[in-house]
Amino acid sequence: MNQITRDPAIQDAIEWALLNGFSLKTSPESATHCAFSLAPTLIEEARFSHLRQAVPVLAKLIHAVSEDHKYLQEVMAPIAGADPFFTSLLNLHKRIHFGQQKALRQPMLFMRTDFMDDAEEGPRVIEFNGIAAGMGPFGQRAHELHRYMQQQWPVTFRKWSPEDDLRLIDNPAIELLSEGVAATARQVREESGESGETGQPVFLMVVQADEDNVYDQHLLEQGLQNLGIRTVRRTFRELHDQLSTGENARLLLEGIGGVDAVYLRAGYQYSDFVAHDLEEARCCQALSQTRAFMEQHKVAINATVSQQLATSKRVQMLLTSMTAQELTRFGLTLPEASEAKEFLGVMLPVDENSADWFADKPCNNWVLKNQGEGGGHCIFGDDILPKLKSLSSEDYQAWSLMRRLHPAHRQHPALLVRRGEATKVDDLISEIGLFTLHFNGKPMTRLNGDDSGYAGYLIRSKPSTVSEGGVHSGMGAADSLAVKYKSPS
Question: Where does the record locate the signal sequence feature (predicted)?
Fold first, then answer.
């Protein structure tokens, strides 16, 4: 244990994290605290306010794209064959929306939009997370930990803070997300006509088997339970044998009854649909059909297959290439489209000329991305050109080049705590994720008079030399935001 780690304030922070469910599961009977920064990241208050105003507009855009099913089929068709998983999603989408049975599901867009604040250009969207858009509860816990440290250990807190006098930016993500999902579930339940003993709304979280990121999920479930919502957890394999159709196209879960809201924390990779005990002609067919079956019922769902396609890297690339006027085709006003355009960075398609074009470009100014979700799907630096040269013509459409963002790192040294060890970082940079929640395109949250759909934030910080910054799958740490304190005039 290094000398910094032995500081009693650090040990207290670790114990606070474990005490408050700010943790990752390490085995069936143990857990470790989530990696965290000991003090918050500084942001200009006007910049944060601008981001808060922008994310509902971006959510409006993504919702409209996700409900334009002909558009999705058209623009995603070129990756058929290049990315097997998205090819299967595209086929599933076609079956849901262009088959004989009508899709009755109601879209609940529970989205996290991730930004990085470039030192020269300002904040730009890195990606839209429309499926498994988690870590909101951990974003709130990071804020609460920093508030605790500011009050309980002020000397240590100031030592590792970017400024001496800070005001933490509130982050009630658990309450906002819970209230929004609960209101959605109640609306679906009321429209179903169920009442009396069966009137308690039901929230179904579709999870991965034996995953370690369960406490973030449970914190959301607790928030819902406190609002009178019954929560249940199932894998796709379990749902394959437990779902049926009730009266008025109700989705029924064995032993539970009617389901009102479904939240997918699984379904963004092939392994989520694998069931080795089922005999199928094609891998994953049975469990993907379970997902399609849910969408044929009157139930709120995040993420619908169309939402997952709409938040793909390919659609993001196409949206960035549009003018503000072109973006109005998705129901945005011209001022809204201009605001959305401001935050959409530069993304380029990959083709047979990309390797030659890239050969004389600074390799650290670009990132090569495929369609994968989560960590491990980006290629950086000197590895980009060899990858471009190795791609076949069938692969091109599944990849894109994104201009790399270079945020200014924190001027004051920061302290990251991971697995019980504290490490000083001199070049900490942060990624900003803002949550929104809409149901059938309508915002479902309210905070201090703001009913735009904003639902809290998640900050992930990492050393600037580290490529993968995810808290769960990379070298990032959960963080929070603060502004410079201004004394009353």
Answer: none
